[in-house]
Amino acid sequence: MTTGPGAVSEFDRDIAVSREGDHFSGELKDGWRVGGGVNGGFQLSLLGNAIRAALPDHPDPVAVSAYYISPAVAGPARVDVRPLRTGGRTATVAADLRQGDDVRLSVLATYGDLAAFPSDDVRTTAEPVVLPPRDECVANTLAPEEIKEMAPFTQRFEMLFHPDEVGWAVGKPSGRGQISAWFRLADDREPDPLALLMAVDALPPVTFDLGLPGWAPTVELSAHVRAKPAPGWLRLRHRTRNVAGGFFEEDCEVWDSADRLVAQSRQLALLPR
Amino acid sequence: MTTGPGAVSEFDRDIAVSREGDHFSGELKDGWRVGGGVNGGFQLSLLGNAIRAALPDHPDPVAVSAYYISPAVAGPARVDVRPLRTGGRTATVAADLRQGDDVRLSVLATYGDLAAFPSDDVRTTAEPVVLPPRDECVANTLAPEEIKEMAPFTQRFEMLFHPDEVGWAVGKPSGRGQISAWFRLADDREPDPLALLMAVDALPPVTFDLGLPGWAPTVELSAHVRAKPAPGWLRLRHRTRNVAGGFFEEDCEVWDSADRLVAQSRQLALLPR
């Protein structure tokens, strides 16, 4: 693994896209696979990187809504970006990620320059995610080898679970519908708005904590990036409060090392069968 | 006002669309105006009605994400619906609402048949919106005449505000960032999934309760319709927990008369200047 000054992190290497005429090309690497599919948050980071390239004056995702059309597989991917409104403080685009003729992911997104937004009025009544010290949490590196092979995605970051919310790993879910963890990308790659698009879909499905293991396909995921994250560890939390009709909503909050709520997301997902 | 058996409610009359070749036509009526623009939730109901017409096997919105591109005005509108995936339990489309050459609203949406979804596993830990009896709440009909003229939208329904959360109307906002109310469409039109798309954007901006009156333009609104609402009054609640960067998130919950959480939405909006 390459680290050190000047080295490119695996995350940056893997979300890279190149412009080819009217579209962008990239590759969904096998390392981001979960079972037969590729993690939806990672797809969003790669697609989000293409949008950033298409909008030089608006480098950061502010609001992104993703609809997952068909399961992505490891291999080449193409991103098309279509501007809907540009100019001013924000720009809005439609974008699709395709493999061959199949749309994997269709997105609407508003981008802006988070550093240029006013920073003097922050009123957050949401309460930060509280986690025990990292050496008291349960590391993803402890996962069994068969999990690591089935889901190499889980090895792209350090994830240190709240010890009270990881009972599902040993068949004792809490039943509360909450999973939280410390989070840091491999290579100590610092968080940024594009990485947050992956972070909001990085934890296991919150249904694990309800005693429903198994894949929970995302129908729709909308994320708001509310500030550039400070360097260091992130804290992530998944929660659900409404399981019904064979679906559940999953809210994610991402807090940075400066105790700022930097991203909020909600997805609608299918209950595992 | 037409009422009685067989009468068409104003909501149904106003969201009506007709198919014209490859697109749908409708009209944004002046009655749904707020200041110079047309309420975003109403636009979504009209557009959502066109999607319903385009997807006869999938009549109900399940997840809808709307990006507001330019302010809509009273007058004719056109809706284009482009299928992304059809067949199976749900279908996903992209749709745009245009006036002339201008896109007002661009949407991604997943539709299904809510009545056909499994109903045996409902686990809602969210707590219902609690409101005093309706005769102890503050009715929207009490609004000054100049408000009714500026925002005829507010007269399309009965809205009975929680008396502790309506101080903004007399210059005494609570500062908590919460507004809740009883809600019922004019003509006693019963709630359904399309009406919920309007209901999630019907309350005043929650920033009123933070002492920030004024228009709060929606950047993005995503709504999940989780069940067909039971007949009768709805309870709506807006909340915000994170004001930052000149934006705020606004969560809406809609509870029906059977105490079911039938819709959840979140929007990102611009703070009033």
Automatic annotation (TrEMBL), chains A, B:
Residues of the Acyl-CoA thioesterase-like C-terminal domain: 137-270
Domain Acyl-CoA thioesterase-like N-terminal HotDog, first and last residues per copy: 29-112
InterPro entries given in the database record: ACOT8-like_C (IPR049450), Acyl-CoA_hotdog (IPR042171), HotDog_dom_sf (IPR029069), Sec_Metab_Biosynth-Assoc (IPR052389), TesB_ACOT8-like_N (IPR049449)
Domain of life: Bacteria
Pfam families: 4HBT_3, 4HBT_3C
Protein name: Thioesterase family protein
Protein's organism: Nocardioides antri
